[in-house]
Sequence to fold (995 residues):
Amino acid sequence: MFGKLTWDAIPWSQPIPLVAGSVVVLTILAILAWVVLKGYLPYLWREWITSVDHKRIGVMYTLLGMVMLLRGFIDAIMMRSQQAVAFRAAGYLPPEHYDQIFSAHGTIMIFFAAMPIIIGLMNFAVPLQLGVRDVAFPTLNSTSFWLTATGALLVNISLVVGEFARTGWLVYPPLSELPYSPGVGVDYYLWALLISGVGTLMTGINFVTTILKIRAPGMSYLRMTVFCWTALASNLLIIAAFPILTATLGMLALDRYLGFHFFGNEAGGNMMMFINLIWVWGHPEVYILALPAFGIYSEVISTFSGKPLFNYRSMVAATMAICLISFLVWMHHFFTMGAGADVNAFFGITTSIIAVPTGVKIYNWLFTMYGGRVRFTTPMLWSMGFLVTFVIGGMTGVLLSVPPADFLLHNSLFLVAHFHNVIIAAVIFAAFAGVTYWFPKAFGFKLDEGWGKAAFWLSLLGFYVVFMPLYVAGLLGMTRRLQHYEVAAWRPWVLIAGVGILIMIAAAGCQVVQFVVSIRRRDELRDETGDPWDGRSLEWATASPPPPFNFAVLPNVQGEEPYWEIKRRAMEAQQMSAEPRYEPIEMPRNSPTGFITAFFCTMTGFALIWHIWWMVALGIVAAYAVFVWFAWRDVTEYSIPAEEVARFDRARRQARERWLAQHAGQPA
Amino acid sequence: MKAQAMQAALAGTVKQLPDSRSSGVRRLLQRHTLPCRMSAVLIAFLSVSGCSGGVLDAQGPIGAAGAKILLNALGIMLVIVVPTIIAILAFGWWFRASNMRARYRPDFVYSGGVELVVWGIPILTILFLGGVIWIGSHDLDPFKPISSPDKPTEVQVVSLDWKWLFIYPEEGVASVNELVVPAGVPVHFSLTSASVMNMFFVPQLGSMIATMNGMVTQLHLAADKSGEFYGQSAQYSGGGFSDMNFTVRAVPKDAFAQWVATARQSGSALDRTSYLALCQQSSNVRPFTFRSVDANLFNAVVNQQLPPCPGPNIERAGATGSPRPER
Fold:
């Protein structure tokens, strides 16, 4: 009846996962109870769960990412503390648990923390910056989000029911094959990523269509913000790379479920095939995350330097160059697998070539600050921290691209330090910069600067104290994924990294406090104008938070920085442009399709993991039925009357006029 | 005082780089005093790690060449990276909004000259580094034999579940978790795995290489002089991975011959039956030797005439013990 699932699947005998799992379950139940008792459920269902509004979906993506970032961070704390006490000792985490933690840490951080935050910020900002009302396929967008949430849910269920993979975050065969990993851990990994991968692919299709096909009048390609360009590049990479991930993991699933032999030791299977394929996805994935992050920095640095981005076209060219070259470097992840010198040298050189457009970007940001008036707000501090830190990470990356150097450092803590150096500096700092930057747009009030700055300085310090010692430990020969170790020379560095994680905990605390304090003080931090940072692109041209339709009248774009232009003209004339003629606006109706589909996909995934075949069939049939039901719908849109549009826009114009009066006489 | 120590550390480290390119790096570092001081800190940092058994404390030609290329590439990049970091901090600080002496130039958004420099300098650097990569990859290809008057010692390596088997086909002996090699003589390794993927790595001797079932990889290393080095697996391979390390003992040639002679007289024979017993998972296995080895054993593993071993299985992980054969 329930396949492999029995009461033994719950780790009764292991206190750490049991307690952690119970706390998570109880927290979720408490939140659900609070929502139901307070009567928020209908509101949540109507305004958020079934919402197809790109802004709401963006907020939900980002929230999911932030919660998972915390979960991944707890894994990191456990790993660092285990290594700190595991010198010639067993530590407090036995290998079978520790190995799950580092596998889950990587999986969660990349797929369910970094990806949702980046996709969330793209969801929120790209349609606003393009000056349009929504993405190309709003209901698909909602489905993408809920499928990503499905993946995150499955990974977290593994904490309480069964186990997670003990194979590392990229489940290299043959270790991940059935003979060596007979448990459900790898199956959790596979189905979580196969299901959320479909969601990510649909996001890619959605955003490429949106950026190529739906832009405000006059918004030509070379008038788009660099963030939109990087979003385009990133989503092109998603379309090209995610099918490879799905196919690769699909083949591994066939190996495990139906006795195929793609990657195992037997019957001519070849693990090198898997390792090549997974990195053909894996390296572009790095840029899927990093490119939109570069876009965020471009927006932030330009805004807070009070200047347009330096060498905009060069920036666009560099973005697209990275997009292309990122597909030609995958083999640098396994120089030590025994390929010949020609192959290694080729991929070493292509890898170092990526440093060229990336370097160009650094210098363009540098010269954006040159001659500017730099305001050190929290987002700008994250950007400065990124610039300095990322240069170091880039340098160690180029070091690792030299095959003979990689032969000494591959899979060492030097490598671990390198990729945390680039991913934390590029993606995580960008996530915080982007969240702080767009938060007032999304919610109508700014985040508290004091706590934000404290979080930044502690994160920066914590980062250096954790990862600089790991570089040294790597040079001393310490490899990654060690549950305990015997070499005395490594110990001081591991201990310093352990101290660093304490600083990081303080930083994470400041982040949480920042949100709590800001929500409590929201009336003081309120932004009436819709333009709290003196912004330059179109998202600042509408109110904060923007109405469902984003813009009362679609802006007519006449240059590279449309909103700056509008502001300049208004200040010169000391008055706003004439009131436009308002018309009714058609908007897509909310739909529970995404949520219900994801519900049945969760069911299917869970049933596949535990071999509950009747539930698999039920889940697939039901998910398909939801799709058919959605395809047969009659009414797809609703109309917002012109009066309501006018009422909203007049309120915004009044706020802007007050602002204009206050700033009268200042040079534009 | 502190600066002197750093300068000394810098001079010491640079002195260890005996090729012409490194003297160029040294000149570059000396010309720029501020970058010089920063890189002195960094190199002092590196030299801390260079004297305690890591990859920078190389004890053989391959390790030394790899460490040299690593430091050269680092030097090449520091020349750009250090000024860039300084410029980021300096530009940000000088152009802060409250600094009234800084000129506000909101129209400075394009400059052909800057464009040329920011594309040109990275391209030139990467051209130079690309040469280093191409030459280095060919010189230090793990499959490439080390030129030496001595005939290389042959060692066949099989990564087992959580221990290492070293077969000396010419001497007809084998050893578990201890690799004894003659100092000053190149060693030619042929490597495979009994089950899952591992990676053979002796940090002080240089290059690591993967071991995979059904396949052979090759590696050439040498130790300059006698000594004991730490070896390990660099590829996570299941629950007992953390204990999958071994000792490398480089000994004088006559001591090696003596070790072989002793090994031949003690221990049991390694044939297919005892191999299948040995390859059951176990960790923390104390080193021991086999007095003789089935001459075809390694090929049988590689060609899968011997099936892949049962491999790591966490469900059985509790039941680990020394597989040392009873005598």
Q: What stands out?
A: Helices of chain B lie at 2-15, 20-31, 33-50, 61-94, 112-139, 253-265, 272-278, 297-302. Confidence is low (pLDDT under 50) at residues 1-37, 316-327 of chain B. Chain B touches chain A through 105 residues (CB under 8 Å).
